[in-house]
């Protein structure tokens, strides 16, 4: 009876030890077994694993991809601009044995290496590269972190910069620069449009100069477009050359008319004088001696009076 009790107790203790030696390894984990403190070369895969109680000790390592955010790092770029940059690192354990033996805490080690590498990238890069050329920075940052991580059995999948925080003064300067650039582009577009319009107008003027009727048709078309609005007043343009033509014609015609008037007046005066100066036939009664001399004296006086009055009448006639 005593022997059965002892055997039962021994069996119970063996069962308890067997249970305590059972370990379950998940699908996303790998087990590293340390026997008397020495790591076994065999890496335990997922499933039910048996260990020697009191002798073996298992350490599980997660082999999933880990997403680790890098805290915001402040630095000065190569062109002396103070910025604050944060990033994110994606990595996984490629060699569980090294991750468990070569480094005490590979997560903390990767975080510190990522922070120092990010500060180094900030100091080597310019502000324009941080804002526009991030692909090259991602590759360089991943290479800098992956170099020490390979010795720890960790593979860096990718590194990306999340945000770049600029000072307020730099933001205002960049906004002014962008505004000036947009204004420059707008002015260039306007100038290009004016150049094309000028070229088209020059071509149109050349065609109109060859066909003068086209200018008249264009004028009539403009009149039709203006007349479509009933509340508008239509003003027909009068060329200045036409006014100058009338002015020159007036200046050339007035002296000719005055000369013709003066010539007509002179001819009329000469005709009157010839009629008055013509001697009448002397009657036989007046043919006595001394009478002809008296008649000549009277005719001379009449001629003098007529010559003095007729020019005045001739001068008043053109004026009327």
TrEMBL record:
SMART domains: PHB. It comes from the Bacteria. One of its GO terms (cellular component) is side of membrane. The chain crosses the membrane at residues 6-25. Signal peptide: none annotated. Residues 20-178 form the Band domain. Residues 268-289 are annotated as: Disordered. Keywords: Membrane, Transmembrane, Transmembrane helix. PANTHER family: AT06885P-RELATED, BAND 7 PROTEIN-RELATED. Belongs to the band 7/mec-2 family. This is Slipin family protein. It comes from Nonomuraea zeae. The lineage of its organism: Bacteria, Bacillati, Actinomycetota, Actinomycetes, Streptosporangiales.
């Amino acid at each position: 009876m005593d022997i059965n009790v002892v055997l039962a107790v021994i069996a119970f203790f063996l069962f308890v030890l067997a249970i305590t030696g059972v370990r379950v390894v998940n699908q996303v984990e790998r087990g590293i077994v340390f026997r008397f403190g020495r790591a076994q070369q065999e890496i335990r895969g997922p499933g039910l694993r048996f260990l020697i109680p009191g002798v073996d000790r298992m350490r599980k390592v997660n082999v999933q991809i880990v997403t680790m955010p890098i805290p915001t790092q402040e630095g000065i770029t190569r062109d002396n601009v103070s910025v604050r940059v944060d990033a994110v690192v994606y990595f996984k354990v490629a060699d569980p044995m090294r991750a468990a033996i070569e480094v005490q805490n590979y997560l903390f080690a990767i975080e510190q290496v990522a922070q120092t590498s990010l500060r180094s990238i900030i100091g080597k890069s310019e502000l324009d590269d941080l804002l526009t050329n991030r692909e090259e920075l991602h590759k360089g940052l991943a290479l800098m972190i992956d170099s020490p991580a390979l010795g720890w059995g960790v593979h860096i999948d990718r590194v990306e910069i999340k945000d770049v925080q600029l000072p307020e003064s730099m933001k205002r300067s960049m906004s002014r620069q962008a505004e000036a650039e947009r204004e420059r582009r707008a002015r260039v577009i306007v100038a290009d449009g004016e150049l094309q319009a000028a070229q088209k107008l020059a071509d149109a003027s050349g065609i109109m100069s060859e066909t003068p009727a086209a200018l008249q048709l264009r004028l009539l078309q403009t009149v039709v477009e203006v007349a479509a609005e009933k509340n508008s007043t239509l003003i027909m343009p009068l060329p200045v050359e036409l006014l100058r033509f009338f002015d020159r014609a007036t200046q050339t015609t007035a002296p000719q008319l005055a000369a013709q008037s003066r010539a007509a007046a002179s001819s009329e005066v000469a005709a009157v004088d010839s009629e008055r100066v013509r001697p009448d036939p002397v009657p036989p009664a007046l043919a006595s001696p001394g009478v002809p001399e008296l008649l000549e004296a009277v005719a001379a006086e009449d001629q003098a009076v007529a010559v003095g009055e007729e020019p005045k009448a001739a001068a008043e006639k053109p004026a009327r």
